[in-house]
Write a structure and sequence with these properties.
Oligomer: single chain
Order of helices and strands: HHHHHHH
Number of domains: 1
Strand content: under 5%
Number of helices: 7
């Protein structure tokens, strides 16, 4: 009875934490909306300077990673430890691919002189500077969440290997999966806001 209660408490705590994350990104999305209304043309021009290919690839990568994360949890519940480890490893690998793609994209922008405070943006329309400030802030914050998720999944990987996460005791793994799904959902909002406003 006590273990059941602890699991429910941990799950409730996780949902409360996710709620604060929704509030944080929700406020940033509202800020984006206010500036988009003010600088619509400049935002559209800024969106054209982003690489749609990287945006699409990263969207697909994160969607697949959410699927492998969910399958890993289900495999653990069904006492399929080997499958759970492989699927969780795939999730971590996909997260790394996402970060690598984002690094390439950011690096290209920096080489082109597009970064907060750059001369290129300072000399252009104010709305474009605002667009890229929001772009780097939101995608950077999202990348921090990806890194945090990968760290937590790495801990889960160790706990599964050491036998501390087993069938019937998957609360930590499930909560980690919830966090990863949040990261995925946030990107689903970020993708059209920055890459599809052409």
């Amino acid at each position: 009875m006590s273990s059941h209660t602890d699991k429910r408490g941990a799950t409730l705590g996780m949902w409360l934490f996710l709620y604060t994350e929704f509030m944080l990104f929700g406020a940033l999305f509202l800020l984006y909306g206010a500036y988009y209304y003010r600088y619509t043309g400049d935002f559209n021009d800024g969106g054209r300077e982003l690489d749609l290919f990287f945006g699409v690839v990263n969207t697909v990568v994160l969607l697949i990673s959410s699927f492998t994360a969910a399958c890993s949890i289900e495999s653990m519940k069904r006492k399929m430890k080997g499958a759970a480890l492989i699927l969780l490893g795939m999730t971590i690998l996909l997260g790394i691919v996402f970060l690598f793609n984002k690094y390439i994209e950011w690096n290209h922008k920096f080489e082109s002189g597009i970064f907060p405070g750059s001369e290129y943006l300072a000399e252009g329309p104010q709305g474009r500077s605002v667009f890229f400030a929001l772009y780097f802030t939101l995608t950077g914050l999202h990348a921090v969440h990806i890194i945090s998720g990968l760290a937590v999944f790495s801990i889960c990987l160790y706990l599964i290997k050491s036998g501390r996460i087993v069938s019937g005791k998957t609360g930590f793994l499930e909560n980690s999966g919830l966090y990863w799904h949040l990261v995925d959902i946030i990107w689903i909002f970020l993708f059209p806001l920055f890459y599809l406003i052409l």
